[in-house]
Amino acid sequence: AFSGCSNLTGSLIIPESVTSIGVSAFSGCSGFTGNLTIPKNLTKINTGTFSGCSGLTGSLIIPAGVTSIGNSAFYKCSDLTGNLIIPEAVTSIGNLAFSGCINFTGNLVVPKKVTSIGSEAFSGCISFTGDLILPKGLTVISASAFLGCSGLTGSLVIPNNVTSIENSAFYGCRGFTG
Predict the structure, then answer these.
(1) What distances in angstroms separate CA 101 from CA 50, 80, 139, 149, 150, one per listed residue?
(2) Would you give the distance in Å from CA 97 to the centre of its chain?
(3) For a Cys staple, 70 with which of 47, 111, 154, 159, CB 3.0–4.6 Å?
(4) pLDDT band for position 9 (50/70/90)?
């Protein structure tokens, strides 16, 4: 719908009446200078929906009804700052979902219903300043899922249910203290 639009200014505010946003709808949009407001009625963030959107700032608050975050959904949305809040209803986080989002701070909390984390889902997220909290039901940590994440503090506790930790899942992670 808006893929590749440039010289946009201000915030990206999607009205509450929107219940579905197509694949790559806002991919590559540039020039935003404000917040991203995602409608409460959205249940899925599709592949590439906000991939490469530049200039979006503030915390990323995903609505409580979202159950799925697609591949590259927020890939390289590097200007978002503050907390990343993933709701408890989320059951899947796709490949590259948040890869290259470099300015998030606070804890990185993977919701309790997530059983697998996609390849490079959080790779290159370098500014988290808190703990990495993985759910007890997690079974698969895909290749490079947390590649290069730095700033995370506290302990890295792999849940007992994890049956597969793929290549380079935590390669280059720095900051764990326990």
Answers:
(1) 12, 7, 24, 10, 12
(2) 5
(3) 47
(4) confident
pLDDT of residue 176: 82
Nearest-angstrom CA–CA distance, 47 and 89: 18
Q: CB–CB of 55/33 below 8 Å?
A: yes
- Tell which wins on pLDDT, 176 or 165: 165
State yes or no: pLDDT of 129 exceeds 90. Answer: no
Burial (Cβ within 10 Å: 0-12, 13-18, ≥19) of residue 177: exposed
Question: Residues with Cβ < 8 Å from 8, sequence gap 6 or more?
Answer: 29, 30, 31, 32, 55
Which residues make Cβ contacts (< 8 Å) with residue 178, sequence separation at least 6?
154, 155
Q: Where are the beta strands (DSSP E) in 72-174?
A: 84-85, 92-93, 108-109, 116-117, 132-133, 140-141, 164-165
Mean predicted lDDT score pLDDT of the chain: 92
